[in-house]
Write a structure and sequence with these properties.
5-stranded antiparallel β-sheet; about 375 residues; single chain; alpha+beta; 20 strands
């Protein structure tokens, strides 16, 4: 195992921030990148990463890793220190108000302009060329704020990986994941091993999130050059939502760690006989078919449906109760589907998203992500 430290921009004198990456297996023959807790108040992934670190080190010492695996257990030291009045605030940077998992650097246009005259009919050559220019572009891209410094450090670590696994969680949720329709055939075994109850697909959900900043650059280059040059899909990414924020325990973390290792064995990253593929719990559905349930007014929020429950159209999900007027407002879903996540808050404010239902019929377009 090799441990690297990456210095980040300091916000003020006297403060030092660092990213730590742990590298296992042989370099130069393919790469897997795994990070945890980019939203710093989402901690199940950090415990899974700790379990992975122990297991990957054993596999490294046994010589059973066929490709390099890079692990970043704490992907957001900036957000991790944001605690206000005993409440962790790890989703948005307090200085800028920006979501830590948005606005990663998009280099597809500049890379396309630079490589156009160097592309050939050899897919392997084009793959290597694009990765080289992607590395160069990220290395030369300026960082003028600590947040930009952190984003660039993470992108530089992952930009040449064959697969990128970004470990998150929701508020109260069942295990689910996000990836692209193009990557789904490669990701489906991971959904099976994890027992994901929802797999949500979108090529571009908006916001330039960490996982999509890798898959999108290859997809956009394919769209630009596919009729003239063979551009392989050089990387696929997946965001894994490890249930809810309170689901931080060794039993679940060990289970998820083993599922990821089974997937890496199935993918040929780890030498050995892969475990049998479990059944797919639910088929993949479009992210655009997810129905956000919104509170039309404020009040006490009382849920009648739990994460993991399949809902019929028009089912009662929750009630919003005004304790002053005694008004009770029911909240129902429009289309059937799986309730895969809900809020941890029990006082709703007007316009608040209280839950998400994974349906099958597309009901949204444009920007598809939560704030």
């Amino acid at each position: 195992m090799h441990h690297s430290t990456h210095e980040l921009l300091s916000p003020v004198p006297g403060i030092c921030r660092q990213l730590h990456s742990f590298h296992f297996g042989p370099r130069g023959g393919g790469k897997v990148y795994i990070q945890a807790s980019l939203h710093a108040d989402e901690l199940p992934g950090m415990l899974v990463a700790w379990h992975l670190k122990q297991r990957l080190n054993e596999l490294h010492q046994q010589g059973l890793l066929r490709r390099e695996v890079v692990l970043v257990p704490v992907a957001n030291p900036v957000g991790l220190e944001q605690v206000l009045l005993d409440a962790p605030l790890g989703r948005f940077e307090l200085q800028s108000g920006e979501n830590f998992n948005r606005n990663f650097v998009d280099l597809s246009d500049s890379i396309g302009d630079q490589i156009e005259s160097h592309l050939t009919q050899d897919p392997a050559h084009n793959l290597s060329l694009i990765r080289e220019y992607l590395r160069r572009g990220l290395d030369s891209h300026p960082a003028v704020t600590p947040l930009q410094s952190q984003r660039l450090a993470l992108q530089r670590l992952a930009c040449d990986a064959d697969m990128v696994l970004d470990l998150h969680c929701d508020f109260e949720a069942v295990e689910h994941l996000y990836t692209t329709p193009e990557a789904w055939p490669q990701v489906e075994p991971l959904a099976r091993y994890l027992g994901a109850q929802a797999s949500l697909l979108a090529t571009d959900s908006g916001g330039q999130s960490f996982d999509e900043c890798f898959s999108l650059v290859w997809w956009q280059l394919q769209q630009r050059f596919a009729k003239r040059f063979p551009i392989p899909m050089g990387s696929f990414s997946v965001t894994i939502e490890l249930r809810g924020q309170a689901d931080v325990n060794h039993e679940l973390a060990s289970q998820d760690c083993q599922a990821i290792l089974d997937f890496l064995t199935h993918s040929g990253v780890i030498e050995g006989q892969p475990a049998a593929l479990p059944p797919l719990r639910q088929p993949a559905t479009p992210l655009a078919a997810v129905e956000p349930l919104i509170a039309p007014l404020g009040g006490l929020l009382v849920f009648h449906a739990k994460p993991g429950q399949y809902l019929e159209p028009g089912q009662l999900i929750a009630e919003v109760i005004d304790p002053l007027s005694d008004r009770v407002t029911p909240i129902r879903n429009v289309q059937g589907g799986l309730l895969y996540a809900r809020s941890v808050r029990r006082m709703a404010t007007t316009g608040m998203v209280i839950a998400h239902v994974a349906g099958e019929k597309v009901c949204r377009s444009g920007y598809l992500l939560a704030n």
